[in-house]
Amino acid sequence: APKKLLILPGDGIGPEIMHEARRIMDWMAQARGVRFDISEDLVGGASLAVHGQPITQQVIDAARAADAVLFGSVGDPKWASAGFDRRPEIAILKLRQELGLFANLRPAKVFDSLVDASTLKPDVIRGLDIMIVRETVGGIYFGTPRGIETLPDGTRRGINTEVYTTAEIERVARVAFDLARKRDNRVCSVEKCNVMESGLLWKEVVTDLHAREYSDVELSHMLADNCAMQMVRNPRQFDVIVTGNLFGDLLSDLASMLTGSLGMLPSATLGAKGEDGRTPALYEPIHGSAPDIAGQGKANPLAQILSLAMLLRYSFDMQEDAAMIEQAVSNVLDRGLRTPDIMSAGKTEVNTAGMGEAVVAE
Amino acid sequence: APKKLLILPGDGIGPEIMHEARRIMDWMAQARGVRFDISEDLVGGASLAVHGQPITQQVIDAARAADAVLFGSVGDPKWASAGFDRRPEIAILKLRQELGLFANLRPAKVFDSLVDASTLKPDVIRGLDIMIVRETVGGIYFGTPRGIETLPDGTRRGINTEVYTTAEIERVARVAFDLARKRDNRVCSVEKCNVMESGLLWKEVVTDLHAREYSDVELSHMLADNCAMQMVRNPRQFDVIVTGNLFGDLLSDLASMLTGSLGMLPSATLGAKGEDGRTPALYEPIHGSAPDIAGQGKANPLAQILSLAMLLRYSFDMQEDAAMIEQAVSNVLDRGLRTPDIMSAGKTEVNTAGMGEAVVAE
Ligand SMILES: CC(C)[C@H](C(=O)O)[C@@H](O)C(=O)O
Ligand SMILES: CC(C)[C@H](C(=O)O)[C@@H](O)C(=O)O
């Protein structure tokens, strides 16, 4: 039976860039006879507009039934003041939680042909290749108690709780160590153990797991504030970074921006292997929905296309097809084609569709 | 009566760089007849070694009685595994909490003569001048419940609680708005209101205060992950940033590193004006204790010296003396003198004492 692929374009530039990823799938079907069982649905603001909620139970069930989810991006200023429970972002938070997608893999990689796109000096970032493994179903994003309460004297208090258990820390650390073994074999674990007990436990659990099962991997520890600095000072010191939900949110965005080309970076979020042998997985560009340029043909579809490649590689074990797409992207860049976000002097500017077509042509 | 100044050199390079700051004070006494009532005491690892605790009640009382505290830095790998309650860092956390030092002011400023020291391209950071106002006595650093608990099944859970009240948010926002009025009149408030209710309350309170009392100041809001990115993409878009304790920790370190010269940056942490009209205040370099280079004469004393200038300016209203010190530092840099951390081709390398002497000479 063909693999089940659920496509969730979402908001803003999501639909445009997803359109280009579908172009690649169409080509794969035509040229290589690869068939998927594809369905598509609404999330984020797009779902709010139709269903009054950022994601329906039906979409969650479809995601659970799929072999992999290809996600665009959510977020729409239209819903900015719609209340905490009606944020488009809930779509992605719910998918993570309901499917148990606990490990967000975010590569920050500098393409040689785009080394000048960064605000950092080329010498500092040439060849940069960091993999951030961010925990995504625990920590302060989901801990309780949470909320805003009003005290008798009228004072209001906003509360969130950071909670991590040994098991939650261990499983994400395992993903990081396993990945490191296929890379440069180094893991840096990041927390604030000097002020937070949850960080102290994090450090202990990672250290123990390392001693028990991964002593062949080089492990270091770094405070989150120092990590933010080191990323700017000398980002190439890192191979794999593993960290909690909140630090991972900031640090992975920071790492991406070092590359200067957010529009190029895919990500994967993986769950635990189920009894049926399947690993729930969602793939998405690391950039947001960019409402300011939506519908103008300016968006860079490459992160979405590379997310598809990542999906083929990790979820469908289609290494050859994944490599083919990645090579095509690399060739297109070498030929000098650029969407506006990565445009520089002497290159050829193309729009979203132009870029998608060029990748297909390659 | 002369102003009471408490000096706490701390660990690592703290004592060396404080020595150079004292040189300036000696010169002020000699050349300008400025007298302070100076006392000095132990904090951090230095205090742990003598008193078995990172800060004694006596030092806290002395800090409370002082008109201002000049702090070096704390942190010593010797005490890394001494247990959560015996971390050198507790010294600074306790001082913040006991003296109610709720607003940490951290300027990230690029000196023209050091524009090449950054890993960012000169075009991106030339003239950079950001002021980060970080809340320092609330949030997840101090919220309860906190700790590590063991569940009946042996699972351990690390817990920390982020709490912010309307009053805590308002007073730090006020500091930011007041500062903005003396600068470029723009405040960017940073939180994660899309996932945290404490951030949602933060945003509401800042927005309300702005509407009520500061509508002449330009206010914007940014998510913390986006802020980390924007700092790398285009840091000069910011004037004053106001944010909570944890985000402020990461973002202020990140902002400092953009300048490429941590050894140059001072900071102030201020409390609320007391009934006696005094505002508790602590001044310290933003860099850490750098144990790796301690005792080698390599440390850059300028952040400590500029912290003294900041102290004179904010706490003692000695504008002229502060400006004099700042000008001397600027002249020394223009003359090409550099400690190893900011050394570059064609400049003259000096050691810690050499730099201190040069500032005095100017
Ligand atoms: C959309 C938002 C809730 C999300 C997060 O904060 O996790 C995003 O920033 C991300 O990093 O995937
Ligand atoms: C020393 C440490 C507790 C402190 C903090 O995390 O607040 C430091 O990093 C700082 O930024 O002043």
From TrEMBL, chains A, B:
<keyword id="KW-0963">Cytoplasm</keyword>
<dbReference type="Pfam" id="PF00180">
    <property type="entry name" value="Iso_dh"/>
</dbReference>
<dbReference type="InterPro" id="IPR019818">
    <property type="entry name" value="IsoCit/isopropylmalate_DH_CS"/>
</dbReference>
<dbReference type="GO" id="GO:0003862">
    <property type="term" value="F:3-isopropylmalate dehydrogenase activity"/>
</dbReference>
<dbReference type="InterPro" id="IPR024084">
    <property type="entry name" value="IsoPropMal-DH-like_dom"/>
</dbReference>
<feature type="site" description="Important for catalysis">
    <location>
        <position position="192"/>
    </location>
</feature>
<feature type="binding site">
    <location>
        <position position="253"/>
    </location>
    <ligand>
        <name>Mg(2+)</name>
    </ligand>
</feature>
<feature type="binding site">
    <location>
        <position position="249"/>
    </location>
    <ligand>
        <name>Mg(2+)</name>
    </ligand>
</feature>
<feature type="binding site">
    <location>
        <position position="225"/>
    </location>
    <ligand>
        <name>Mg(2+)</name>
    </ligand>
</feature>
<comment type="subunit">
    <text>Homodimer.</text>
</comment>
<feature type="domain" description="Isopropylmalate dehydrogenase-like">
    <location>
        <begin position="4"/>
        <end position="359"/>
    </location>
</feature>
<dbReference type="GO" id="GO:0005829">
    <property type="term" value="C:cytosol"/>
</dbReference>
<keyword id="KW-0028">Amino-acid biosynthesis</keyword>
<feature type="binding site">
    <location>
        <position position="134"/>
    </location>
    <ligand>
        <name>substrate</name>
    </ligand>
</feature>
<comment type="similarity">
    <text>Belongs to the isocitrate and isopropylmalate dehydrogenases family. LeuB type 1 subfamily.</text>
</comment>
<keyword id="KW-0464">Manganese</keyword>
<dbReference type="InterPro" id="IPR004429">
    <property type="entry name" value="Isopropylmalate_DH"/>
</dbReference>
<comment type="pathway">
    <text>Amino-acid biosynthesis; L-leucine biosynthesis; L-leucine from 3-methyl-2-oxobutanoate: step 3/4.</text>
</comment>
<dbReference type="GO" id="GO:0000287">
    <property type="term" value="F:magnesium ion binding"/>
</dbReference>
<dbReference type="GO" id="GO:0051287">
    <property type="term" value="F:NAD binding"/>
</dbReference>
<keyword id="KW-0479">Metal-binding</keyword>
<feature type="site" description="Important for catalysis">
    <location>
        <position position="141"/>
    </location>
</feature>
<keyword id="KW-0560">Oxidoreductase</keyword>
<keyword id="KW-0432">Leucine biosynthesis</keyword>
<keyword id="KW-0520">NAD</keyword>
<feature type="binding site">
    <location>
        <position position="106"/>
    </location>
    <ligand>
        <name>substrate</name>
    </ligand>
</feature>
<dbReference type="GO" id="GO:0009098">
    <property type="term" value="P:L-leucine biosynthetic process"/>
</dbReference>
<keyword id="KW-0100">Branched-chain amino acid biosynthesis</keyword>
<feature type="binding site">
    <location>
        <position position="96"/>
    </location>
    <ligand>
        <name>substrate</name>
    </ligand>
</feature>
<protein>
    <recommendedName>
        <fullName>3-isopropylmalate dehydrogenase</fullName>
        <ecNumber>1.1.1.85</ecNumber>
    </recommendedName>
</protein>
<feature type="binding site">
    <location>
        <position position="225"/>
    </location>
    <ligand>
        <name>substrate</name>
    </ligand>
</feature>
<feature type="binding site">
    <location>
        <begin position="288"/>
        <end position="300"/>
    </location>
    <ligand>
        <name>NAD(+)</name>
    </ligand>
</feature>
<keyword id="KW-0460">Magnesium</keyword>
<comment type="function">
    <text>Catalyzes the oxidation of 3-carboxy-2-hydroxy-4-methylpentanoate (3-isopropylmalate) to 3-carboxy-4-methyl-2-oxopentanoate. The product decarboxylates to 4-methyl-2 oxopentanoate.</text>
</comment>
